[in-house]
Write a structure and sequence with these properties.
This protein is an alpha/beta fold. The protein contains 13 helices and 18 strands. Bound molecules: zinc ion (ZN).
Length: about 450
């Protein structure tokens, strides 16, 4: 719990002294030496150079202090299948493996056991905020919100709506559109009723192929009535893109807008098949993309052009997409985001697609998506260590078992020390302590 460099007082205040390392904007790495951060009731109220040692100033933490990571797309009920089934196509993966596992959450006790393993594990990896797709079950979804509140993880939690008779199995779907909407409304009420400042609901139609038009219209109205934000999958794969186009005659983003689901802070997972008209609608509405680079490598039939989407002034966060992505670590996903951007830039087939030009991203951009970008996507005041933000933070050192060199920031003189340090930490993180809302949770 915390480190030697953190001192709590009984009045709900905390002081932490550390070198701060973060990405305040895409492509920008910032290293602030020896900061003393004061936190009152979960909010950073002061952050400035630490004074000379004196009795009441805590010792400086080893390693660096970073903002907590924001996973903008993760499927809680798929936690038990993390790392397996990734030789299948998306449709087969859903129907043969994933839907049967999610259906088990009808047993709330089973689901609660999964949540009690998952939430502390994610916190230990540095994921201080998670934007969850739960299952279709209201009770299991409420249990997830309770688990997040109990373990101290900030979370945005969606009870999954899915009622389409062709897009879902008959043993795992809402009975009809009215049931899909009413259960979603009940889930919002139950999560809000917990009264935890850490957890909030999000309206979650799984994706257009899994939902009837009537359900999508009803959920759009529910979002307008309640002010609750929306998440779904969009423009993910050739298969999904084709199904939506055939059924609605519209591209995915435009169809979602027609249903009232493209709103400020709407989270669209994947977005690998977005075109210029889609991007302009996202920028205009304040919706954005959860970039899931590991999952996309298995299921998306395309590389998400993160650089171009950011240049279009569209919000972008990072997601693990557990278990379509085989790692629960946002660090792995940030590193892979850099890798796939290089593959997109340079081409992957010497006899096929032409090179795509300058679409690479660097570690600072990837880590920004994993922190401030994700926070901006979902509209939470985290993702950056600065006065006024909630104190969701990590003490991280470079894992010296990795082979990545762990050198002290002070021992380096050149201007790139911040970006180099950020890259080393992203490649080989060893998370030593975690705070959420000013509370030590790991
Ligand atoms: Zn997903």
């Amino acid at each position: 719990m915390g480190g030697d460099g953190a001192v709590s007082s009984p009045a709900g205040s905390l002081q932490v002294r550390a070198d701060v390392l973060q990405a305040p904007a895409p492509g920008v790495a910032e290293l602030l030496h020896d900061q003393l951060i004061t936190v009152v009731d979960g909010v950073i109220t002061d952050m400035s150079s630490a004074p000379a040692p004196e009795p009441n100033v805590p010792a400086r933490l080893d390693g660096v202090l970073m903002p907590g990571l924001v996973d903008t797309h993760i499927h809680a009920p798929q936690w038990p299948q993390l790392g397996i089934g990734l030789d299948l196509g998306l449709e087969q993966w859903l129907f043969d493996l994933t839907f049967p596992l999610e259906a088990r959450c009808a047993d709330t006790g089973y689901a609660a056991d999964v949540w009690d393993h998952m939430v502390p594990t994610l916190l230990g990896l540095g994921t201080t905020t998670a934007v969850y797709h739960a299952s279709t079950h209201v009770e299991a979804t409420t249990a997830l919100a309770e688990a997040c509140a109990r373990h101290g993880q900030r979370a945005v939690i969606g009870r999954v709506a899915m009622d389409h008779p062709e897009g879902t199995p008959e043993w795992y779907r809402d009975a009809d559109a009215a049931a899909a909407v009413s259960a979603s409304r009940r889930s919002i009420d139950e999560i809000r009723g917990l009264g935890s400042s850490l957890v909030q609901p999000i309206i979650t139609p799984r994706f257009i192929p899994a939902c009837s038009d009537a359900a999508l219209v009803g959920l759009g109205k529910l979002a307008a009535d309640t002010g609750v934000t929306v998440q779904t999958h969009a423009a993910e794969s050739d298969w999904q893109h084709g199904v939506v186009m055939e059924r609605t005659g519209l591209r995915d983003v435009h169809a979602l807008e027609s249903f009232g689901l493209l709103r400020d802070h709407t989270v669209l997972a994947h977005g690998t098949h977005l075109d210029a008209s889609d991007l302009s609608r996202l920028a205009a509405t304040g919706a954005g993309v959860s970039h899931c680079p590991l999952s996309n490598s298995y299921f998306a039939n395309a590389v998400f052009p993160a650089r171009r989407v950011l240049d279009a002034r569209v919000r972008v966060g990072l997601g693990t997409d557990v278990a379509g992505g085989p790692s629960a670590s946002l660090w792995h996903n940030a590193a892979h985001a850099v890798t796939v951007s290089r593959m997109l830039s340079d081409g992957v087939d010497p006899n096929g697609a032409a090179h795509r030009g300058e679409v690479r991203i660097d570690a600072a951009t990837a880590m920004w998506m994993a922190t401030g970008g994700g926070a901006d996507l979902v509209g939470l005041p985290v993702g950056l260590l600065a006065v006024g933000r909630r104190f969701d933070a990590l003490q991280v050192v470079v894992d010296d078992r990795s082979g990545v060199r762990s050198v002290s920031p002070e021992s380096r003189a050149h201007d790139d020390v911040a970006s180099e340090w950020l890259e080393r930490v992203m490649r080989a993180p060893d998370v030593r302590a975690v705070w959420v809302d000013g509370i030590a949770v790991v």
